[in-house]
Amino acid sequence: MRPESSSRSTSSGRQSRHRVVAVLVGGLLLMLVVGVVASRRGNPAPSNPVSGVGVAPDGGAPLRGARAGGRALAAAEDEAVEAAPRYDATTCWRELERFNDGVSLETFREWAAPLLASRDPLVRMYLKERLTELIGGDAGKAREVLEWTREAGPKEFKVFAMALKDSDAVHLPEVSRRILELGLDVELSPERRAGVLSALDTQKQLSPEALSKLSDFAKDPASGEAGWAAARTIARVMKNDYGRTANAGPYLDSLLTIGTQSLDEHVRYMALSTPMETAPVLDARATDGYAKVLTTEGSPDARGAAAHNLALSEDRTKVLDTFTRAFEPEQDVCVRWALFRFSARAAGREALPVMAKMALIDPRFQPLYQDFERIYASGVVDFERVWNALADQDPLGCLHHD
């Protein structure tokens, strides 16, 4: 869901926050009880608005049996939880509203710290959305949060990176350039660079310069996990841009380059498989590129992905010829299954002669060919309907490879 701008009206802001607050009440109620137990052990209550939510005055007796071993301690803790004061939802609601209304970018990290310690994914979701609101469309605030990611702990880092990705400010050129620079910074760990680069996933498009830098970085053998993330970012922005312009050409070129030149098999597979989600129509250059992958790529999964992409080429005749030549030397049955079924996707009923030849080469495909032939004879032509009409969509146990 697209986050709302920080400049929205107070009324609409409260409605947005209340939707998130509602799902947090249950988790925060548990935090209240835990807070009571902690306070009864003599732990000082933190001073910010969240850590003080619902903490009862300390007046209870010391826990009995706390020194008598693990079992006695567990039993005593259970008793303390049972004896703790109960808080209704309105208590949590008021305190969370106080966080909503009082928190600023300057106080966010301090106030959010005890909530992050809860390990509750709903809490992290709320914090991410609230920080996205605080950033809004302000480039300065976005750059400040980006700097936080340098030394933030793992939980903080994830919230900061996701909030940046969903903010309006991330689309400002000065912000996206700075994210790219930090993501390519060799002083950061590969894992942190990967997380920073993921903040670019929501871009509407990538400039030729940004695309070139990400492509070169993804091909670098030293990029590791961050190179994998760079290829994924290219693919995700391609989907965004293709939805607006119906032009995936520059992105496909970059992904093909990564998919054929990277020395890391995981990076190659990411680059070769991600176009399947966007499903762009391949031009002659992209068709040639993916056809080459079928004969040069060592990973069966990547060869299967290339067959999937080729099924959407604008040159059906060339695709069928490519699949025919690739089928016999192919040793992996799952890649053969990809070549077989994607022939039907590429050319529909016209692919039946090619599929019949494949079934002669590999008898395991004869009953599958008969199934396709029967369905086409019934008048079904749309590939999705043909696929759904198959007696068995995973006859060779290969779908986990797709």
What is the compact description of this entry?
This protein is mostly helical. The chain has helices spanning 10-40, 70-83, 89-102, 108-116, 121-135, 139-148, 154-166, 173-183, 190-197, 208-219, 225-245, 249-261, 265-273, 275-278, 284-296, 300-310, 316-327, 333-347, 352-361, 366-377, 383-389. The protein has a domain at 297-402.
Note the beta-strand portion.
Answer: under 5%
- Indicate the structural class: mainly alpha
Radius of gyration: 28 Å
* Mean pLDDT level: 82
The total of beta strands comes to 0
Count of individual helical segments:
21
Proportion of residues in helical segments: 55-70%
How far apart, in Å, are the first and last alpha carbons?
A: 28 Å
Order of helices and strands: HHHHHHHHHHHHHHHHHHHHH
Low-confidence stretches: 1-15, 29-47, 50-70, 84-91
Protein name: HEAT repeat domain-containing protein
Keywords: Membrane, Transmembrane, Transmembrane helix
Transmembrane segments: 20-38
Organism: Myxococcus fulvus
Could you explain how this protein is built, in words?
The chain is built from 21 helices and no strands. The chain is mainly alpha-helical and 402 residues long. It has a domain at 297-402. Residues 1-15, 29-47, 50-70 and 84-91 have low confidence and may be disordered.
